[in-house]
Amino acid sequence: MATLEKVDVVIVGAGASGSVFAAVLARAGKRVVLLEQGPNWEMRDLVSSEIWGRRLKPTGSPFQLEGRNAVGFAYNSGWGVGGATLHYFANFPRLLPTDFRMKSEFGRGLDWPITYDDLAPYYDRVARDVGVSGDAEAERRWRPVKEPYPMPPLRTFRHGEIWVKGFEALGMHTVPAPVAINSVAYKGRPACIYDGWCHVGCPTGALANPQVTYLAEALGKGAVVRPHSTVTRVLTNAKGERVSGVEYFDQKKERQVQEASVVVLAAFSAQNPRILLNSATDRHPQGLANASGLVGRYLMTHTGAAVWGIFDEHVENYMGITGAQRMSYDRYPKTSRKGAFGSTFWVLGPALKPNDLGGIANARGDLFGLELDAFMKRAARGLAKIQAFGEELPNPENRLELSTDKDEFGFPLARIFHTYDQDALGVWSGSLDEGMQIAKAAGAKEAWPARAAVPTIHLCGGTIMGTSAGNSVVNSYGQTHELANLYIGGPGIYPTEGASNPTYALNALSLRGAEQLAANWTSIAG
Ligand SMILES: Cc1cc2nc3c(=O)[nH]c(=O)nc-3n(C[C@H](O)[C@H](O)[C@H](O)COP(=O)(O)OP(=O)(O)OC[C@H]3O[C@@H](n4cnc5c(N)ncnc54)[C@H](O)[C@@H]3O)c2cc1C
Ligand code: SF4
After folding, report:
1. Do residues 299 and 459 touch, judged by C-beta distance below 8 A?
2. What is the dihedral of CA 119, 120, 122, 127, to 10 degrees?
3. Residue 503 Cβ < 6 Å to ligand 1
4. Does 77 or 325 have the greater pLDDT score?
5. Residue 90, ligand 1, Cβ within 6 A
6. In the 8-state DSSP scheme, what is residue 277?
């Protein structure tokens, strides 16, 4: 075991949130080390192939998945430098103002300690930093708009456009989806070539992953990434009043201690609470930042209501981006669905490849062999997809606890309990019914809803923000209430999740939190 020279900041996880913290703190002249459990993926490791793309995803997870709707890891996990945003789809919608005040407006869920207006300037700055394409004016019907996106919308393809008639028949509006993908050359990165391989990592640099945005900036300003470094505990001083660094296991599986003035946990919604709970000491018997017992509580995921249609024309479904061509917030108001509370967010027209997540083969999970072969031949020409993300309300029983089983480092695995309530299931089911009406009105020759299982996408919560240690784990900057020099980044700090994809908001929140830390460095870091 070695104790390494003390640095200003140690960041656990080199994914979306960790990269923003690293850039801001390196910009402020701090000595930053990122510890990342996976490999040091670089742009040259990204290959437009479903087989090669699988290398970017974790094999086996340290979680035991329980409950009626066990959390699926396919849409949640990152492994290695870049995190899940190395192979995410770069849909970049915002949360809407009502998401921040659900309790006070509807008596449901929880309130955020900040409003949409507090976050809006950071959304606009992130758009400029990473490059977002879209039409902000067209979104004015749903949200306040201050700044346009820095790039015009991406071009569209028939397998997205073909649905618009169906939405309009139901009186719904769709607009270009905002995506963190270049529609034109931007900041030295090229425009998208629409080959639809984003889900295995965009090799051209058109898509904003950390390697071409915040992480690149951080490394350029002296931050250091240590790959194959698995953090197991955050360490505290003798009085238990401050954190002093982290314990981790390096590539040789040797235990190391990295001392730091500030620790940022950015290891995603599942790992952050696991590490906090495993960091229990005599002074913090329930784990760090957990006097309230809320660490690991209020986990949430999005349902995903996918509706498939086969059209009688060549829709070029292999073209475009893995994310969305168009979107609609028309069913976002919380009471849009009869008998079920929560938001719905529609996206249209992802590019389809043969296999894997969202691939053509998965459109009919019930078919095998020759039947599947025949379906895929037909679908290759006319298949198109729409999907509605649905909100789940925060529920303390959806939670993460340490298991009695341990991994190779003696780090307890975690049990994740997750069950949707009737509202989430109602929103999902209502969206599937609506999607079928849309498909019919759009002229689909055949259409079917993906009803086999309710997806559990985008894990949020587990270390929620609030106004005090009594009702939450962190404040609105991600700073833990109990230990001033311990921060948490990522969607784990959301007290409610809305229905839109989470990464734009987590970038904005990380930027806001990191700048508060840099601005108050002396009082926080000591
Ligand atoms: C297939 C897929 C598609 C997605 N598409 C979209 C989309 O279109 N739009 C959107 O908004 N969001 C999307 N997401 C979600 C998005 O990727 C996440 O919201 C985002 O990556 C979360 O950021 P994070 O920093 O919290 O975690 P990550 O980006 O996952 O980074 C966490 C990092 O921590 C590391 N780590 C974990 N544990 C440890 C440990 N003990 N020690 C050291 N390192 C550790 C991990 O290896 C990982 O690299 C998608 C996700 C997936 C999987
Ligand atoms: S479609 Fe565009 S963003 Fe996606 S992988 Fe290809 S070039 Fe990159």
Report:
1. yes
2. 140
3. yes
4. 325
5. yes
6. H
* DSSP secondary structure letter of residue 482: S
For residue 140, the tally of other CB atoms under 10 A from its CB is: 11
76 alpha carbon to ligand 1 midpoint, in Å?
6
Number of the ligand 2 atom closest to the C-alpha atom of 321: 1
Centre of ligand 1 from the C-alpha of residue 448, in Å: 30
**Using one digit for the tens of pLDDT, what is the confidence trace for 446-476?**
999 999 999 999 999 999 999 999 999 999 9
How high is the pLDDT of residue 223? 98
Is the CB of residue 109 below 6 angstroms from any atom belonging to ligand 1?
Answer: no
pLDDT digits (tens, 9 = 90+) for 337-376: 999 999 999 999 999 999 888 899 999 989 999 999 999 9
Rounded CA-CA distance 135/154 in Å is 10
Instruction: Please tell me the predicted confidence (pLDDT) of residue 74.
Output: 62
List the beta strands (DSSP E) in 364-398.
383-390
Q: Is 478 in the pocket of ligand 1 (CB under 6 A)?
A: no
> What's the CA-to-centroid distance between 182 and ligand 1, angstroms?
21
- Could you identify the atom of ligand 2 that is nearest to the CA of residue 48? 5
Over its C-alpha atoms, the chain yields an Rg (Å, rounded) of: 22
Cβ 179 vs Cβ 92: under 8 Å:
yes
Q: How many CB atoms lie within 10 A of CB 403?
A: 16
d(CA 75, CA 453) in angstroms, rounded, equals 14
- The strands making up 399-406's β-sheet, listed across from edge to edge, are 63-66, 412-417, 399-406
Residue 4: what pLDDT?
80
Nearest 5°: phi and psi at 175? -135, 165
For residue 190, the ligand 2 atom closest to its alpha carbon is 7
Tokens of 470: 């009594």
| C-alpha 173 to ligand 1 mean position (Å) | 31
Nearest-atom number in ligand 1 for the CA of 269 is: 26
Helices (H), 128-199: 158-161, 164-169
Supply the pLDDT for residue 295.
98
pLDDT band of 224, cuts 50, 70, 90: very high
- CA 504 – ligand 1 centroid, Å: 12
| Mean of pLDDT values over 479-498 | 98
User: What stretches of 453-523 adopt beta strand conformation (E)?
Assistant: 457-460, 486-488
* E strand residue ranges, 91-200: 175-176
Which residues partner with 224 through β-bridges?
A: 33
- What are the residues facing 9 on neighbouring strands? 32, 262
Model confidence at 75: pLDDT above 80: no
- DSSP helix/strand/coil, 180: coil
Report yes or no: 292 and 37 within 8 Å, Cβ to Cβ. Answer: no
Q: 29 C-alpha vs ligand 1 centroid, how far in Å?
A: 26
- Please compute the mean of the pLDDT values over residues 131-147 and round it to a whole number: 98
The span from the first CA to the last CA of the chain, in angstroms, equals 26
Per-residue pLDDT of 267-303, as tens digits, reads 999 999 999 999 999 999 999 999 999 999 999 999 9
Q: Please name the residue whose Cα sits nearest to atom 46 of ligand 1.
A: 79
